[in-house]
Fold each of these.
Amino acid sequence: MTDLGAMYIGAGLAAIGIGLAALGVGNVFGSFLEGALRNPGAADGQQGRLFIGFAASELLGLIAFVVAILILFVVK
Amino acid sequence: MSAGKIDPMEQFKVEPVLGRHIDLFGYDISFTNSALFMVVVAALLFIFMVGGLQRKLIPGKWQLMVEGAVGFIDSMVSVNIGKGGKKFAPYIFSLFFFILFANLVGVLPLAVLPGLHTFAVTSHITVTAVLAFFSFGIVLAVGLIKHGFKFFSLFVPHGAPVWLMPVIVPVELISFLVRPFSLGLRLFVAMTAGHILLEVFGSFVVQGLSSGTPLGGLVGVLSFGMIVGVSALELLVCAIQAYVFALLTSLYLHDAVHLH
């Protein structure tokens, strides 16, 4: 296997993390909706926490993206 | 297929507007497209605010818009910082609207006009990191001035058993120190990723349609549909990232003002 080929495989593997972060983000919003539909009165007060949870799980997926980009464009 | 290699990073190139570099003591201080678009964003924000700053009893549409914006930030600050948070509202306001306007200017499809190419200021970590370090610096300054040495009790959570302290304190310290990096990185990567996605699908459209085969045409049309969807998603991401940046800054300020 050439170095270039190995690089592309590595970048592809790093991209798996983005899909896993998608599971996390879906879980955050899914759970929020589940709770919000049971108690709509309390939902508006929890939007800040919703976005904090979203930001935390989003960040980890974005870091996976950064790793993939670093492998593709920075590592020579 | 007449496929050239797609270079998604070319759109983020920072170059002097006037085409020549100005050197000062070995530093390049030329007026770049990044600086130009920061000025554009600041000017747009200025126009938006000045246009709405009227004291009419019955507000017009523009005044209503600005009042809504101020009220939105005001409620975010009072909910998240709580008592004593009012004086940070101007900072949070500037932060939120600068980032929001910069994001939105970045995705304007002005590149259809020849020679025009909007530049997303927030897709560079140099810009977002400076904003993040502003927030972090204000948190540090406020915490240390208001509480003095007691500020460091932030790293010692209430009610945790004492034998756990050697583990908890370093973890809390690291999570505190990592804040500016995660704040800046999130915004920068979200914007960069969106622009790369748009660039890749845009290249698919051009290459698919110019290949002249039925399959290429199909790919081009499907990619164009994808661009429309992704652009809508981008608008959402622009707003969410600006909101998250402002929200996290106000939460960190809450820590600095109230120490848990």
Amino acid sequence: MPKFATQDWCKEYCAAINGNEAYAEAASDWEGDFVFVIHPDGPLDKELKMWIGLYHGECTGASMVEEGEYKILEKGEEPSGGSPPPYEAEYLYEANYTDWVKILKKELDPIRALLSGKAKVKGDMAKIMRATKAAQELVRSTTLIETEFY
Amino acid sequence: MKGFLGKLLEVDLTSQTLTDLELDESIAEKFLGAAGYSVRYLYDKIDKDTDPLGPQNILMFMTGPLCGSNVPTSGRFTVCAKSPYTGIWGEANCGGYFGPELKKAGYDGIIIKGAAEKPLYLEIIDGNAELKDASNLWGKGALETHDILKESDSLTRIACIGQAGENLVKFANIVSEDKVAGRTGLGAVMGSKKLKAVAVRGSKRSYNAADPEAFKAAAKEMVDMVTNSFTTQMFGALGTPAAVDKYNVEGELPIKYWTQGEWDNAYNISGATASGTIFSRQYPCFACPIGCAHKASVTEGKYAFEGERESPEYETIVSFGSLILNDDLESIVQANYLCNQYGIDTISGGSTIAFVYYLYNEGTISADDIDGLEPEWGKIEPALEMIKKIASREGIGDILAEGSDAVGKKFGISQDEIATALGQEVPYHDLRSAFGMALAYSVGTTRGPCHCASDVYLALLGLPLEDLGFEQVDRFSDGEIMAKDTAILYDYRALYNSLVICLFCSPEPKNLADVIESATGINFDIEQIKKTGERIYTIKRLFNLKMGLTPNEEKLPEILLRPLEEGGSAGKSPDFEKLKKLFFEIRDWDLNTGYPSNEKLKELELDHLV
């Protein structure tokens, strides 16, 4: 059972997304990689960051990253086209560890987490608000992995 | 009392006399300003027999104790009277710049009595008030009226009616600087008094808080909270239609006159689409860091225009979009423009029009019944024609101008097929997607069905209201917690509407208490927030009971309760009677009379009113 936010978990998460047909349909026109930032709280004592490549309903890769290994693109800025690293993402989504756990356990909707201030996002707001269904499926994909939490 | 200027202007249009009055501090201490002050003031003066469109009705324009300060969204003002549409409490608040300008001009509010024989407008410049001839303005649109009255001074702030108000359209609104005091037909009250506009201009901007240092700190905390919130990020970028896509997925978006649960074309009319197509710039209200309002530009095509117009808000997008299956955003800009020019509430006006679409497409009525119009789903042109007919009361417009219930009555339609409650059209957060809205639309309502008086749909997204006792609960719950949450919100928003601040401003309640206390000098804490809110809410309830409201009337039509077949709320519907009973119990109201118990009235210091 992989531990949440490890390289092994990233690999299984990517496979889970790619096995989720509902995600493939909901995100068929989605273009934009994410960096997830997990702030330490509760049992987690250090910040973790994860890059997820997402393109047209597929996960193109997922990896744990360190500060300096990724770049959040400004609105309208095109990716350089080079293979990662450096990881270039259009979106950054951040929350405390305990809220991440709630999101992963489907106790907290990722969009509601934003509206309640439990999570923050950086990136094109129009695309995010349009992607409610895709976001739900992205979360549902995590439930397909048996996860060990901290 | 600090926060207020302490001065009101009383205008008697019959005798054309203007009198300065002192603000009654004993009212302000218990009910604050804006809607709270107005309802306490009007409670003694309006009766069941008062004709809402007669000279005995009293129209109040009121600001609140925070207006003119830098507290986020505090630049709003409220208009109140007995509603000609529902016959109960009439209230609508409005953003823009009119409220702070009225204070700069020297008044906390205006009390308008009587009725003029000929059209007039009220001008207030730096404490000097004057009634002026409005013959040249009568017959003009609201936006046109703004232009004329601003010719000599573009910084004059206006609140006025369009042709709909003049023609006593029952859901006519009051337009101010491209914003509107939209609901309950207060534009018709203004029209009945032959008052075309109020124009204000002041040069003295000063805000006197009771404890300036504490106020500065509390206001800064609120500014920081609001500025950094996702709500600001979202509404600032995408406007109030930001969540159209989300609502569509979750079954909250009303579609095809409330009969469809999901619509593939919804994204074409969403804030996301608007931001990439029609938005030209943000157009924030006074002291608002959110800036949900946007200007729109359409340079090509059938609905092209020069310059900028107001971009439609969420409710308007539904009225002229999903409710009639129209996904042409530019055409909705046009519908919005017409409604603002004529001074028509886009919810009641739009829903009445959508009801005609529903009847036509169900085959219940034909083109012959509606002046030859053919309102097929998805076609906007008949709706644009109906807007014009409503404003002028021409042909079928004369019936439409009385609202959906009148249309239903004319064509012999069951009340259960009309999306109204207490005579007013229900706004656009489908109660089958957030069950508490069933109460907000029909039970214990302050001004008829309303999405702002108890915004459970919004609060359940995670607003920081735990200190008030609000609990997060499943949106499909029809149990005690949902009934209690709805009641808590009714009270809290009654307080909001007496300050008056915007729903999108969501500080911690403790922070809001600190702001109120440091502004006014009244001791305020969480308990005071709850008690004052409940007192204001309850006096509105008493006002409505005095107007003849009974619990039997507090019900919903079947069309709003019938489970939908598809979408995010498919198969869901609340047990309405159960929720209603729970709500009455929580409120300590009598199920037969609707009155609060004597103990409750004493607790709220309202027992002397009954």
